[in-house]
Amino acid sequence: MRVVVGAALVAVWGNRKNYSHRRAGFTQSRKVRKAREERDEKGWIMARQRRNLRVTIGLGAALTFMLGAANSARLCAGQNPAAAPSNPAASNSTPPPSHIDPKAQQILDRVIQVLGGPAFLKVRRLTTRGRTFSIRDEATSAYAPFESYFEYPDKRRFSYGKSKPVILVNNGDQAWELDQMGMTTQLPEQVRRWRVSTRYSLENLLRLRIHEPGTLIQMGGVDFVDNIATQSLDMVDAQQTQVKLDLNRQTLLPVSVTYRVHDPETGGWNDFADVYSEYKNVDGVMTPMHIARFIDGDRVSEVFRSFAHYDDDYPATYFQPVR
Predict the structure, then answer these.
(1) Do the bridges between strand 174-179 and strand 166-171 make them parallel or antiparallel, or are there none, so unpaired?
(2) Prediction pTM value
């Protein structure tokens, strides 16, 4: 009997000892697993931090490149006092060439072809007639028939009205106005808006601005303008003006050009937008017959063209002071 009880006690003790060993092993393996999980989690966090750091460095490098390219013209012009050359003539160094994203360049090439290709690039003058509307508080405040004679890039003779039309003449920085009271120079704000809108007109933008040294162009996003699905190109020109060209995603015809310029009078900024529609093939060039202009989000004018023709001959005095 004692032998049986002793054997039973030995078996129980052995099982308890084995259980303790198994429990200790389980506890140790659980600690090992926990340590391994913590190590894996720490490694995953470190890997994510390294990945975020690489992304941040990559974005920083891209931004540095864009800003460096955009500011290189100013730096070359000696606006950095520490780097200004002692020789004033050296400060007039040539700014860097325009930088255009390859995909954006492909889009621009297709846009120019859609507009007429060589015919669009070679036109020198545009004659139009129609009606112009002045708008205030989203209501028409005035309208009149007009005749416009434009010689690219910055000469125009624009008359509006019926019996006694007002004639506006612009020739570069010179500007005159003739009405029934006589001739006078145009107001400074009138001249400023003319120069800004002409600089970023559709023809001057696609034929001149995009080729200026220091210009940056890249692909923009997609949007809707006047219920038209658009693809945009984002630009910064040689004067550091932000410009966006919205294109019809199906036809690639320009839908709008928006640009933000500094107002020297107020010290603030003006947001301009020119919306183009109702294209018509005129002398091999796709020509918008309706143009709406917005300033700071408000519609200020609309032009409806009923006639358009390219490269008419103008008198030599057409862009001189009106008498």
Answers:
(1) antiparallel
(2) 0.70
Report the residue count for the chain.
Answer: 323
Beta carbons of 142 and 309 less than 8 angstroms apart: no
> Count of H helices and E strands in the chain?
5, 14
Residues 141, 124: Cα–Cα separation, whole Å: 33
For the CA atoms of 275, 279, 282, 284, the dihedral, rounded to the nearest 10 degrees, stands at 100
Give 262-283 pLDDT, tens digit per residue. Answer: 888 888 999 999 999 999 999 9
Two tokens, residue 302: 């609309």
To 10 degrees, the CA torsion angle through 84, 263, 216, 124? -110
The whole-angstrom separation of Cα 179 and Cα 183 is 7
Domains and CATH numbers, the chain: 1-96 (no CATH), 100-310 (2.50.20.10)
Q: Which residues of 225-236 are buried (b: 16+ CB within 10 A; e: fewer)?
A: beebebbbbbbb
Among 212, 218, 233, residue whose Cα is nearest residue 65: 218
For residue 3, give both structure tokens.
């032998």
Separation between Cα atoms, residue 282 and residue 311, nearest integer Å: 11
Give per-residue pLDDT as tens, 138-149.
Answer: 777 788 999 999
Q: On the CB side of 46, how many CA atoms lie within 13 Å of its CA?
A: 6
